[in-house]
Structures are given as structure tokens and as C-alpha cells.
């Protein structure tokens, strides 16, 4: 059960071994996330701010290919550059595209379920964030919507976590394919249910903290979690030294 905290501790040290590229990468992710949320907020699509925030966990593993690559470089004794983690050559192949497509489909499924939960809870369209928040936390129908949405979103998020926690970093290995990577990922979770559930909860808490900050804390949180996820993969999946395969 202490493993997730060991991954976080090691990743924190990794982050400050090459702070400029990692923080610049995180700042880019934070900036795009903030602008998306701000755009939705000012156009009064309040419901979609919530959908975007929860749905973030479904697409983040692909965006984290940069920190995975940075973690791999540090493990081999090399300091990553911003160009290296921003343009990960190993990620531009068919199997990674399949993983990204699967995550995109899961995200679209989540948005559909979220709309259904909203639609069966109220007949009104709440156009501003204060109106939507007042409905969501101040009425029985709103609380019911939050409960149903949280249950559906939680189940989907945990499935997605089991699907990608190992497979996403594993696919940086050119010898790995999507079938083997996803099977290995599910096996890692089912073989270690309590530590991996704790790791999923930690990721969820960090995403929530980032969302509360308007996603600005993703500048640090995103590369930190990415590096920790690389360490988790290396801890969970025994295989030959990767230095020979680092291009």
C-alpha cells in the first residue's frame, strides 16, 4: 500500500532533475485546459464545465506521453529536453493511435451518460454557473443527478484507469502492441487491487485539486503524475532494461 506514495516521492525528485522542460510542458497543458474551461464558463455552458473536468481523466493518459518519455530518459541517465517530451516519436504509431481512439470513445460515452443524467433530473436548462451550482447542490433533483453522475463516472473512470495505467507508458516500447499492453494493464490492477485503487484515488484527488484551481496547478501536477505513472509502470511490469531500447 505504500507503493503509490513511493512513486509520488520518486517522481517529485525526477521533476526537479529537469524542471524547465517538465514545468513548461505542464504549463502548456494547464493553459489549454484553463482556456477551454474559461470559454465554456463565459459562454454559460455551465454543465459542460463539469463534464470537461470529470472527463479529463479519460484523455490525460495520452497527453502524458511526454512525461513518460521524460521519465524513461531520466532512468537512462539522460536529461530530457522540452522538444523531446513535446514530440515523442515513439508515440506516433498505430497501437498508440488505437489507444487514443479507445479513450476518445470512452470520453464520448461519458458525455452521453452525463447528458442523460442531467436530462432525467430536470426539465430546465441552467445557462449560468451559479444557477447550475445552485441546482446541483441545493435541490433533491440536483443531488440525485450528482449522485448518479458520480456513480457512472466513477465506474467508467476506474475502468479507464485499469485500461491505461500500464498500457499507455508500455506502448512507448516499440515491441509492445495494444492487445498485450491493455491485457498487462488489467492484470496489474487485478493482481494488486488495493494499492492500485489507492493510486486511482490519489490521481482523482489531484485532478480535483487542479480543477478547483482553474487547472492552473496542472503546471506542476500533470508532469508530476506523469512521472509517477512511469515509475508505477516500471514497478508493476518486470522486463529487460529499457536503456537498450531508448532511441
Report on this structure.
The protein is mainly α. The chain contains twelve helices and no strands. The protein has helices spanning 3-15, 19-42, 46-63, 65-75, 82-86, 94-121, 129-138, 140-164, 167-170, 178-191, 193-212, 218-236. The radius of gyration is 19 Å and the shape is globular. Helix 4 packs across helix 12.
Poorly predicted runs of 5 or more residues: 241-247
Q: What is the N-to-C order of secondary-structure elements (H for helix, E for strand)?
A: HHHHHHHHHHHH
Q: Give the biggest beta sheet.
A: none
Helix content: over 70%
| CA-based gyration radius | 19 Å
Q: What is the first-to-last residue Cα distance? A: 34 Å
Beta fraction: under 5%
**What's the average pLDDT?**
84
User: What would you call the structural class?
Assistant: mainly alpha
Question: Summed up, what is this model?
Answer:
The protein has helices spanning 3-15, 19-42, 46-63, 65-75, 82-86, 94-121, 129-138, 140-164, 167-170, 178-191, 193-212, 218-236.
Keywords:
mainly alpha; disordered C terminus; globular; 247 residues; 12 helices
Indicate the topology.
Elements: H1 3-15, H2 19-42, H3 46-63, H4 65-75, H5 82-86, H6 94-121, H7 129-138, H8 140-164, H9 167-170, H10 178-191, H11 193-212, H12 218-236
Helix pairs in contact: 1-12, 2-3, 2-12, 3-6, 3-8, 4-12, 6-8, 7-8, 10-11
